[in-house]
Amino acid sequence: MKKLIWISSYPKSGNTWVRYFLSNYFYNKEKIDCDFDILNKIDKFPPQKYLSKLIDKNELEQNAYNISKYWSLAQENITKTNDKFVFIKNHNALVSVEGKNLTDEKYSLAFVYIVRDPRDIAVSYSNFDKTINIDQAIERITSKNLYCHVSKKNPFDIEVLGSWKFNYFSWKNGVSTIPRILIRYEDLVINTFKTKLRLISFLSNILESPIDEDHIRFSIQQSDFERLKELEKIKKFNESAGKFFNSGKVGQWKEILSFDQVKRIENFCDNEMKELKYL
């Protein structure tokens, strides 16, 4: 049954921020001040609670791409819930690995894709993952091949990413029969209410539910970036080994990236960046 609403993006593009907003809008009807626990309402794909029962981790250690064998089965388990719809967080590209599709019309109800300027992603990525520097982050963003990111903490947490532009292109055009909305991170920052109203309007149309503008405003307040930064000071964010909510600024790359680093990104992502008005 079609139940899955994918919240997808390349890493460090605002996915968790949007997830926090949607968790409050759909699952905090009492309007209670909440902490990071509300994010448990929207799990990451593929959910570890299913994978650990389905997969022998030795199989993944031999070849991380073997995770693709279980994508469909994981979605079958998710859709057995009594809920009418299920949000899932995702960084995978919308790919097929050896004939195994990430998803299809059988399980998916809608796609929400968040895209961010790849120059800012390079800065944010290196701030988040202390094992890589900016040049290594740029290598990932401009990778000419698919690659797997395997979590050091959890061998079941595997993402098939590809480059920034491949990830974007795959969700923009893949499985064309599924409705989708593209949200720019920059619009979330600069035109917050208008952009989130657009997102909720899209989802309300899919779910045939009314739009509650008052609750949109409440959910924006709850997911305010500065509030989340302060919350992280008093409560650890378990999805990150270090500081997660760092800057969130638009255009921070201008003060940090070298000319050569900027050109490496722009040359590789030229057409897509122009399409998205980043160039």
What would your notes on this structure say?
- By secondary structure, this protein is α/β, with parallel strands linked by helices.
- It is 45% helix and 13% strand.
- It contains 14 helices and nine strands.
- A hairpin with a 2-residue loop joins strand 4 and strand 5.
- The longest helix is centred in the C-terminal third of the chain and has 16 residues, at 192-207.
- The chain is globular and about 50 Å long.
Low-confidence stretches: none
Our count of helices gives 14
Q: What do the pLDDT scores average to? A: 91
The overall strand count is: 9
* Strand adjacency order, main sheet: 2-3-1-6-9
Radius of gyration based on Cα positions: 18 Å
Helix content, binned percent? 40-55%
The end-to-end distance, rounded to whole angstroms, is 41 Å
Please describe the biggest sheet, giving its number of strands, its sense, and whether it closes into a barrel. 5 strands, parallel
Order of helices and strands: EHEHHHEEEEHHEEHEHHHHHHH
Describe the structure concisely.
This protein has 279 residues and is α/β, with parallel strands linked by helices. 45% of the residues lie in helices and 13% in strands.
Layout: helices, strands, pairs:
Layout: E1 4-9, H1 15-27, E2 43-44, H2 48-54, H3 57-62, H4 71-78, E3 86-90, E4 96-97, E5 100-101, E6 108-115, H5 118-128, H6 134-141, E7 148-150, E8 158-160, H7 164-173, E9 180-184, H8 185-190, H9 192-207, H10 213-222, H11 225-234, H12 253-256, H13 259-268, H14 270-275
Parallel strand pairs: 1-3, 1-6, 2-3, 6-9
Antiparallel strand pairs: 4-5, 7-8
Helix pairs in contact: 1-10, 5-6, 9-10
